[in-house]
Design brief:
This protein has helices spanning about 10-15, 15-35, 55, 75-90, 95-105, 110-120, 130-140, 145-150, 165-190, 195-205, 210-235, 240-245, 245-250, 250-255, 260-270, 270-300; strands at about 45, 60. By secondary structure, it is mostly helical.
């Protein structure tokens, strides 16, 4: 076995063979459903017909990509809604786990902290079908809120079917479902901050706000930038299942995003080639955003998701 230098790759593979065997099923699933499936993007260059298959479908070149530049109203609406929802959720959803992590970290009682964490984590394990059903039972036309308003003789509220507040409704659902679960990474980062820094700052007369600004937030900066970069890569995917379950209530004009456009035009409408082209371009844009944001992070001295 070599000494004084790194072991050869085959020696490291043999050394870690048990861990690699445990990881093998997951690696196979990722390989089949994430990488091998990329070959299906060839449909973007075909007039794909399922009964003919990929091999016998007619090749049309870049024809399917014309929807990206010809001003198709449905596609333009999907792009506009996707960008608007991405901006809203980045501004209002992303900071919530950070704030929750800071609040949880400030709790002195471990028993209370664990109880609050359990309550916050629970919605994450519910499917979107259950989440939407809960909101319907509470805010729907025959839900608890409107039944209470009727009992008081007051006018009812159309919340779930109002296109004007649909983005706000989606954002509220995302916060309720996933904000608690997202605090895990921030709490882990907070636990790595040296406690002596807080003690030294307290001796120097720094209050909680100054400690948070000069110690806590800089300690979280790395994980914040990392998650922002990853969010950029997924920024054009804004919750297919969540939206498709509520789309009929508000209509396509208010709810159509790129993911639902691909579904409605591909699987439902039979426009397989166009939908694949849109999905392919969306993926390429996501990769470009991740690489660009990661490069920007390096410029500002952060590691990002990988080192160049």
């Amino acid at each position: 076995m070599p000494t004084g230098r790194q072991q050869p790759w085959w020696a490291r593979m043999w050394r870690d063979r048990t861990l690699l065997l445990f990881a093998l099923p997951g690696m196979v699933l990722i390989l089949i459903f994430q990488y091998v499936a990329l070959a299906g993007n060839v449909i973007a260059f075909q007039d794909y017909q399922p009964f003919l298959g990929i091999r016998d479908s007619l090749w049309v070149g870049w024809e399917n990509f014309r929807v990206l530049v010809n001003g198709d109203p449905a596609f333009v609406t999907a792009v506009r809604n996707t960008l608007a929802l991405t901006l809203i959720q980045t501004v209002f959803v992303f900071p919530v786990p950070i704030a929750l992590a800071l609040l949880l970290n400030s709790l002195l009682s471990e028993r209370i902290k664990k109880f609050v964490q359990s309550v916050l984590y629970l919605p994450h394990f519910l499917s979107w079908v259950v989440i939407v059903a809960i909101f319907q039972q509470v805010l729907g036309g025959a839900g608890l809120l409107n039944n209470f308003l009727r009992a008081q003789g007051w006018a009812t509220l159309d919340i779930l079917g109002n296109p004007d507040i649909f983005f706000g409704l989606l954002t509220t659902q995302v916060i309720w479902k996933d904000a608690g679960w997202s605090t895990i990474l921030f709490l882990a980062a907070l636990s790595q901050i040296d406690a002596s820094l807080y003690e030294a700052s307290a001796v120097d007369g720094a209050g909680r706000w100054r400690q948070m600004w000069h110690i806590t937030l800089p300690g979280l900066r790395g994980i914040i930038i990392l998650l922002l970069i990853l969010r950029l890569g997924d920024s054009l995917s804004v919750g297919f299942e969540q939206i498709i379950l509520q789309q009929n209530a508000v209509g396509l004009a208010a709810s159509e995003v790129l993911d639902t456009y691909v579904y409605n035009n591909g699987i439902v409408g039979g426009g397989w080639g166009v939908s694949t082209a849109v999905g392919m371009v969306k993926g390429v844009i996501g990769v470009i955003l991740v690489l660009g944001a990661n490069k920007l992070a390096h410029i500002f001295g952060e590691n990002g998701i990988y080192k160049s």
